[in-house]
Amino acid sequence: MTQTETTTAASGGGDRADGLLAPVPDDDGAPFFAYAARGELRVQCCADCGERRFPPRPCCPHCQSFESLWKKTSGRGRIWSYVLPHPPLLPAYAAQAPYNVVLVELADAPRIRLVGNLVAAADAALNSVPPERIRIGAPVRAAFHETDDGFTVVRWLLERP
Amino acid sequence: MGAARATATLKDATAIAGIGQTSFAKRLPESEKTLACRAILAALDDAGIAPSEVDAFASYTMEETDEVEIAKAIGAGDVTFFGKVGYGGGGSCATVAHLAAAIATGQASVGVAWRSRKRGSGPRPWTNTQVQLPTPAQWTRPYGLLRPADEIGLLARRYMHEYGATRDHFFNVALACRNRANQNPAAMMYDRPLTREMYMTARWISEPLCLFDNCLETDGALACVLVSAERARDCRHRPVYVHSVAQGLPAQHHGMVNYWNDDPLTGPSWTAARRLWKTADFGPQDVDVAQIYDAFTPLIPLSLEGYGFCGRGEGAAFTEGGALEIGGRLPLNTGGGGLSEAYVHGFNLITEGVRQLRGTGTAQVPGATTCLVTAGEGVPTSALLLRS
Ligand SMILES: [Zn+2]
Known about the structure:
The complex is a heterodimer of chains A (about 160) and B (about 400).
Chain A: H1 3-10, H2 30-37, E1 42-46, E2 52-53, E3 68-72, E4 76-85, H3 91-94, E5 101-106, E6 113-116, E7 139-146, E8 152-158
Chain B: E1 14-21, H1 32-47, E2 56-60, H2 67-74, E3 81-85, H3 92-104, E4 111-118, H4 134-140, H5 148-163, H6 167-181, H7 196-200, E5 204-207, E6 209-210, E7 219-228, H8 229-232, E8 240-248, H9 268-278, E9 289-291, H10 299-306, H11 315-318, H12 337-340, H13 347-358, E10 370-374, E11 381-387
Parallel strand pairs in B: 2-3, 2-4, 9-10
Antiparallel strand pairs in B: 1-7, 1-8, 4-7, 5-6, 8-11, 10-11
Helix pairs in contact in B: 1-2, 9-10
Zinc ion binds near residues 48 and 60 of chain A.
């Protein structure tokens, strides 16, 4: 952990006004959140061999290159799995429980599976989609939710609500 | 030609000569340090070895009491080997493996491995929001994937979807562990039988996992003493030989949230198993009793596949027909395991493996001479093959 991140965590940067946890990005992950703030879902990609990788890291596990770029994705994917957490949970999450956590396999890069929430609209609650509407394999697309404190988190909408 | 010689083998070179533990409870009054000392001194007494002879220690990186404190308190002599293994319950068997390597290569002669934890009365680790490790928590925790049960729940749901595993399969695991705990007076669930109805109507923790799919929350400590095979034959009990050891960190694996590779359902068990069987004189079909890490019931079918007791996708079906009960194909977690005896990061699986091979288990598998002990699946892991 770098000094900057330690400071962020220690100053409570992990907690949002709504009580949910904000991402605490590391150096490698920061670009993902910067692009998300612009409404783009991008993944790290080797500038030499072209392999996409996740989570982001300093060098390419395929060719060991340190050169990388962030490639835009279609923002589309399919639900690979999901859970419905029930208490005991942190208070702000318990208030919305049971909510869903989905794992979305990206259409452009099936080995990259992003953890997120399936919601009825970008700014809707974590429990806004009824559990019976969630199924493995369902096509979804990315939506971008800006929290009260200006963080942007990626969420997911059903392609066929 | 010395440089060309094969390196020394660990096979049966060392043995577990002593085991010790405290009581297990939701709340114990003593500190983790005190509990650790009690378990270690009990293990040394069980072996008949004086604390002053201890010259090696191994534990988990999550162990709060370090070897300096332990050595000072129990009256160890000069210590020449010490180390810790990471990844929570994935490190349990590796503590013994590291001691075996140290003793077999002459770095030490009497080793102690231990784990002391007040997880029953202490805080749940996931409630600490200030210890959000940026990787991978930045990708998971904001979305409410907060607890190990949520993280493993995602793999469990996918496993059910791909292979037709059902809640009844997970219940088979929970029941086998509970039945053994009901035979073990030291188990937290000794007098608490489990029924299918209780399981099916239990509250959810992270759907598809219910309360009984989750391990216990326990205060307690355990330890074991490792010496050379030769020395072990002069100790108080029948030696339990460390036949084969392995650790496993698969390519592109990511502990707990292993979602970012080709095949998330092929976890660290597969990697550890390949190495474990490669250096063993016997195979999965020769294992008399198994102690498989059970922080969550779905880890059992995944591990059964990984360690080669059945094929990929067949782990759930393997649990049918009483296979995991005494008299079944593979009696499992005979002290009750993490699900029903105590959850102390899997160390009770090691001590129970020793008891089975001494013939002193509370739910003894008749004539057991071989035992597989595993550490956590779903995290960088480790495993031991023990034999008498
Ligand atoms: Zn590359």
